[in-house]
User: Fold these one by one.
Assistant:
Number 1:
Amino acid sequence: MEKKVFNKKEIMLKAWAIRSDILAMLPPGKIGHLGGSSSIADIIACLYFHHMNINQNKDRDRLLLSKGHAVLAQYAALVELGIIDREELKTLKTFGSVLQGHPDMERTPGIEAVTGSLGQGLSVGLGLSLGLNLNKSTARVYVICGDGELSEGQIWEAAMAASAFKTDNLTAIIDLNGIQATGSTEEIFPVRKIAEKWKAFGWHVITHNGHDVEEIHEALCESGEIRGKPSVLIARTVKGKGFSFAENKAAFHNGSLTEEQYQIALEDLENSRKEIEKL
Amino acid sequence: MITASLRKSYGEALVELGSENNDIVVLEADLGKSTMSCFFQNKYPERYFQMGIAEQNMASTSAGLALAGKIPFYSSFAVFATGRAYDQIRSSIAIPSLNVNICGSSAGLSDFGDGKTHQSIDDIALMRVIPNMTVLSPVDALETGKMVRAMAEKNAPSYIRINRADLPVITEDDNEPYKIGQMKSFRKGSDITVFASGIMVHESLKAADQMGREGVSVEVVNVSTIKPLDTEALKNFVSGKIGVVTAEEHSIFGGLGSAVLEALSESPLPLVKIGIQDQFGTSSACYEDLLEAYHLTSEYIVSGIKKLLK
C-alpha cells in the first residue's frame, strides 16, 4: 500500500466532523453516550481517515469498539466515509434503526462484530488477528477499550493470550478518560499503573495524548512496526472532549442535553472549526 | 454389545474434518487430553490454540476466528464451556449467529469423582434458551462423529454435550449424515413413548425391555437434537399413546423434559419427567453409583412408566 502523507489539518477536520455528527445523533432530550464517543473522536479520525485500509475486501483492517457504547463515533466516521447514509443519524436507537445502541454487525454496514457487553471486544479482536494470520492476510485489527472496562477480568485474559500468541497485527487502544458511568475511575474502581500492567503482560506500550492527532498518528505508526508482540496505545483523553459543559463529567457518560446545552455544543463546534481552519 | 468413547470420536472427527478443510480450527482450555481435542493438536498444531484456563476469552476468541472465516470448535468440561462463558457465548457468538461450535465434555454426572463443581446439570438449559443456538446430545460414539460434521456445516452456533463414559454403540455405522433436528425411534411401541437423550436412551431401552416382559409396549425415541426440536415429529411419536416419559441426565428444569413439555403443551397426555431433581451433583467412586443415587437408571424409568399406567 502506498504511504499517504499525514495531513494534520485534514484529520482534525474529520475529527471535527465526527463530533458534529455525534451531536446530530443526540438532539436535546435524547439520551446517549456523548462523553465516551467524543473522547475517541480524534483516534477514530486517525484510524479511518489515514491508517486503516478500508477497502471492503478480506484484507481490510478491522476496528472493534470493545467499549461499544461509544459506537456513535464509529457511526459518524462511517457516515463521513459514505458507508452509512447520513439520514440515519437522526434514527439512532429508534425501533428498526440501522444505528443500534451498541455495535451490531448484523444491522450496520461497516461494523465488524457484536460488542458492548464490556470486556469481550479485545478477545474477539484476538480471534480475528489469529484468523487473519492463518489466512496470510496483511490486515491489522484495532480494538478500542475504555479505562473503566479494564475492570473486566476478560480484558486481562485476552492480554495474556495475545502476548502468548505474539499477535503483532493487533493494536489495542485504551481510552484513558478517567471517568466511567457513575464517577471517576479512581473513585469507582482504581486500576492504576496501567502502562506497567500492559508491559508486564508482554505488550508494547505507547502512551500519548489521545486528542493530538500527530501523537496518535505517531503511536499508530509505531504500533504497526512492532514485531513479535501486540501493541497497546494508552491514550490520555478527556471525556466529553469538545463540548465544554460535558468535559470530565460522568453525567454525560450516558445523558441527554438540554436545549441550552445543545446550543452551547453548536457554538463549541463552530469555535473549534474556526480554530482548525486557522492552521 | 460394543461400547465406544464419545470423546475419542469427537477428537477423531475433528481430525477428519481438519484434513478436509483448512478453515477448521480448535481451541482448548487445558483439558485437551480429556476432551480429546489433543488429537487435532497432534495433527494440526498450527490450527490448534491452547487458550489456557480462560474460558471466557476462549469463547470470544472463537467468535473472532469465525469472523475471519474460520470454523472454530472449542472444548472444555461442560460446566466451564457453557456457564463460565455464558455471556461471551450470548453476546460475542450467538447474537451475530457465528459458526462457533462448543463442545461441553464430561457432561452430566459423568465426571463422577470431581463432584458438583464439575458436573453439569444445567448446560442444556443454558444453551437452549439462547436464540440461534443448536443443542445436541449424542447417544453414542458414531452419532458424535456425525454430529461434529453437521455442526461444522451449519453456519450458526452449536453446542454438543459429550459423556465422559464409553457408551454402547446403537446407531448405524453407515454413510448417512446426521441431520440436525432428526429424531429417531430405537424401539417401536404402542402404549408409552419415552423421549430420551444421551446415556438415558440406553437406560430407556432397558426399561422398555422390562416393560415388554410385563406386556407393556414402550417406544424409545432418541432426541439427540434438543434444539431445534421437531415438534411435528414429537406429536407423531405420541399419537395414539397413553402417556409420555422424558429421560435425561440433566436437571428436570430447562432441559429435554421441559422442551418436550413445551412442545406438547396442548396434548392431554400425562407426562413424567425423569432427570436430576432440583439439586447439584456430588462426588462418587463410580458413575453407576451416581446414576442410581440420582434416580437415572432403568428401574426409575420403569417406575415412571408404571405411574402412567395407573
Number 2:
Amino acid sequence: MHAPWLSLSIWIPILAGLAAMATGGDRNAPVARAIALLGAVAGFLVTIPLYTGFDASTSAMQFVESAPWIPRFNVNYHLGVDGISVLFVLLNSFVTVLVVVAGWEVIRSRVSQYMAAFLIMSGLLNGVFSALDGALFYVFFESTLIPMYLVIGVWGGPNRVYAALKFFLFTLLGSLLLLVGFLYLYGKSGGSFAILDWHGVPLAREAQVALFLAFFAAFSVKVPMWPVHTWLPDAHVEAPTGGSAVLAAIMLKLGAYGFVRFSLPILPDASHVLSGFMIALSLVAVAYIGLVALVQEDMKKLIAYSSISHMGFVTLGFFIFNAYGVEGALVQMISHGFVSAALFLCVGVMYDRMHSRMISDYGGVVNTMPKFAAFMMLFAMANCGLPATSGFVGEFLVIMGAMKFNFWIAFIAATTLVFGAAYTLWMYKRVIFGPVANDHVAALEDINGREFAVLGLLAIAVLGMGLYPAPLTEVMHVSVENLLKHVAAGKL
Amino acid sequence: MSEYVLPPLLVAYPEIWLLAMACVVLVVDLYLPEALRRTVVYWLSLGTVGGCAVLTVIAVQATGGQPAHTFNDMFVADLMSHTLKFLSYVAVAACFVYSRRYLADRDMLRGEYFVLALFALLGMRVMISASHLLTLYLGLELMSLCLYSMVALNRDSGVATEAAMKYFVLGALASGVLLYGMSMLYGATGTLYLEEMAQLIAAGAANKVVLVFGLVFVVAGLAFKLGVVPFHMWIPDVYDGAPNAMTLLIGTAPKLAAFAMAMRLLVNGLAELAVDWQQMLLLMAVASMALGNFAAIAQSNIKRMLAYSTISHMGFMLLGLLAGVVGGNLLSAPNAWSAAMFYSIVYVLMSLGAFGMVLALSRSGFEADQIADYRGLNQRAPWLAFLMLLLMFSLAGIPPTVGFYAKLAVLDAAIKADQLWLAVFAVMMSLIGAFYYLRVVKVMYFDEPAAGVAPVEAGLDLRVVLSANGLAVLALGIVPGPLMALCLAAIQGVYPLGR
C-alpha cells in the first residue's frame, strides 16, 4: 500500500491556491507569495516518490487510486500513471515552482489571485495527466481553461481580452466534441468511463474514424496543429510571462497526451487510416510554421510559432508507429516543456526591464547582461536541437523513426533543424549581439539571484536531459512498447 | 346519505399549513403598527416556508417516499413531488432574503409581496402534486395570478405595468389553450384523472385523433409556461420589465413547477402518446437552444441576457425529456427524465444565484441591470465577483461546476436515444452560450471599475445566502452523485421501470 501521491500532487497545489486566494488584497501579498511557494514546493516534493518508486518493468498503471464518484454514471475517481504520463506530472509540478518564483516581484496587482490561479491550474493539470476515468479526465481537462482564461485576461497585455476569449472558445469547441465522443464510448462500452476499458471496446472502422475526428477536434486545437493553431500566437503574446510558460510547457502537452492516451489505443484502426493525414499536418507545422517563425518581429510570437513547429514533431512521432518515433515524441514533449518555458522566462526577464518584446528594440544585450546572455544562449541552442541539449534527443529519435518509415518524411522533418537554427539564432544574434542598440539597453541590469535560480534550474534540466536521457526513456520504454503492440493489433 | 370520511391529510399538511399561514400573514400585516410590520412579516414568511420544509420531511418519513394519494386521489405526494417542493422552499426562502433590502429601498416590502409570494408557492406545490387535470389547472392559475400581480406591484412604474400586462394577456391566452387541450383529452377519455387517462389510452379506449389534437394544445400551453420557442416572447420582456426582485421569483421556483407539470401531463397522463409529443418537444428544443443562445449574445442588459439564457436552458432540459423515448418505447426513460429533472434543479439553483447577484448590486435608485454595471467587480468586491464567476461558468456548463453535470446527463440521454446529431447541435449551441457568459466574467475581471462607483451595499444576510448559493454550485459540481441518485429515484417513483 502506498501513500496517495497522485491525489496529493493534485490537491496540495489546489488547496494552497485557495489558501493564497483567501489572503485577499495586495496588502497581504507577501503572505500570498509565501503560501504559493510553499504549496508549489510541497506539490513538487510529493511527485518525487512517483519517479523513485516507479517500476519501469511494467506497462501497468501504478500508484492507482480508485473510489466511486458518481455512481449514477459509473464514474470513478480513478487515478494512476504509467511510463507515458508519470513524467508529465513531474514536469508540471516542477514548472509550477519556477513560475511562482518568476512572478515573485514582477506581479504587483492582485498577487493572491495570480498565485492562486497558477497553483489551482497546476493541480488540475496533474489531474489531467493522472486521470484514468474519461469523465474525470474531461473535468480536469476543461477546468484548466478557467484559470488560464483569467491569467491571460487579467494580467495580460493590451489585446488580452481578445486573446483570452479566442483561447477559451477555440479550446472549448474542440473539447465539447470530445465530450460527445466520450459519451458515445460510454454507451458503446456498456456504461463504463474507465479509459482502460475503452482500450478494449470493439469499434467498427466508421465509428472509429468518426470518433477520431471528434478527438482530433479537441486535441489538435490544444497541441496546436496547423491549421487550428491561430489562437496560440495571440494567447502567448498577450499572456503574462508565467502564463506563456505554463501554456507552452504544459498545456500544449495536453493535446499530444490526448493523442497517445485516447486516439492511438482506443482507435488504432482509425489512427492507421488517418495517419497520412496526421503526418501531413505535422509536416506542414514543422516546415511551414518554421518559416513563419523566421519573419516574426515579436520575440514571444517567434517562440510561439517555434512551439507549434516543435509540437509538429511530436504529432509526427506518434503517427509513424514505431518505438523511436513515439519515445522521441515523448522526450521532445518533456524537452520542449523545459526549453519553451525557459525561453519565455528569458523574454520575460528582458520585458520586465524594457517593457518591449520587439526584436528591433534590442541589440547588444550581452554587453550589459552577460550572465543572462549565457543562459539564453544555452536555451536557444536547445531550441535548435544542438547535441548535448535536451532538444537534440527528441528530434533525433523522431527523425530516426521517420527514416525507418519513409525517407522523404524524414527529410522534410529534418528541415526543422535548419529552420529552427535559423530563426532561433537569428533572433538571438539580433537581440543579444552587436553594439549596444540604445540607451535603454545600456541601462540594463543583469539578472538577480531569483532569476538566476530559475534559469539555472532550467539549464541543469536541459543539459542533464541532453547528456544522459536514459532515465527518461527507460521509464517510458515498456509502456510505449505495449502501446505500439496494442495499436498494431487493431480492433477489427 | 354516506358518512363523510376525512381523507388522510398527512401528506397535504405542508400545503394546508402554507395556506393557513399565508392568511395569517395577510391579517397580521393589517393590524401591526408600521414600525414592526416589515420585520415581523418578513420573519413570519420565512418561518412559514421553514415550517413547510419540516412538514415535508415529516411527510416523507411517514410515507417512506412511497406515492400517497389524498383528496379523493386528486393530490399525489411521491418522491418527485417531495423533492421538487423542498427545492421550491429553498428557492422562495432565498428569494425573500435576496429581495428584502431591494424591496425596502423601493417601498415595496409590504405584506402584499409576501402574501402573493406565499400563495404563488402554494400554487406551485399544488401543480407539483397534481394527479388530476383540475388540480393541475387550479395550481397553475393560483401561481400565475399571483405572479402577474407581483410584476405590477410597483404601481407607478410604467415599464413594470407594461410587463405585467403582457405577462397577463399572454399567460391567460396560454392557460386558455391548455384548458382547451385538457377538454379535448377529457372528451376523448372521459376522465380527468391522469392515471386513469393513461390506462384508458393504453387500453385503446380513446380516439387517437382527438387525443393528439388535444395533446398539441396541452404541449403548447406547457411550452408557454416553460418559456420555450415559439412560446417564449413574454420571457425577455417580463424579465426585463419586472422589478429585479420579481424577476428573481419568476425565474426560479416556477421552473420547478413547470417541470413537474410536464412530467404529470406528458408522463403520468400521456406516456402512451410519447412518440407524438417527442416530435413536438424536439422542434421546440432545437429552436429554443438556437434562438436563446443567439439572441443572448446581442444583449447589453443582464436581465435580458439571462432571460434568453433561460430559453436556451429550457430547450436543453426538453432534450432530456424527449430523449426518454427510444425507438417508440420508454424502457430507458427514467434515466433521461431524471437527467431533465436534474437539469431543472440545477438551472434553478444557478439562476437563483445569478439574479440574486443582480439584487446584491442594486441599491436605492440603481438597478444594476446593465452588464456594464459589473465592470471591475473583482476590484470592488472580489468575493462577490468570484461567486458570480462560479455561477457564470456553471451556466456555461464548464466543469468543475454543477452546470457541467447537468449538461453531461442530458447529452448522455440524447446519445443513448440515438440522437447523436442533436447532441452535437446542442454542444455547438452551448459553445455559443459560453461566449456571453464569458463576457460577463470578462467585464468583472478584465475591465477597470468605472470612476466613482458607489461601494456594494449588500447586507450580511444576503451575502451569507448568496455565498451558500454560489458555493453550492461548486460543491455539487465536486460531489454531484447524491443529487443525481435522488433525481433517478424520484423519477422511478413516478414512472417505474418496465411499466
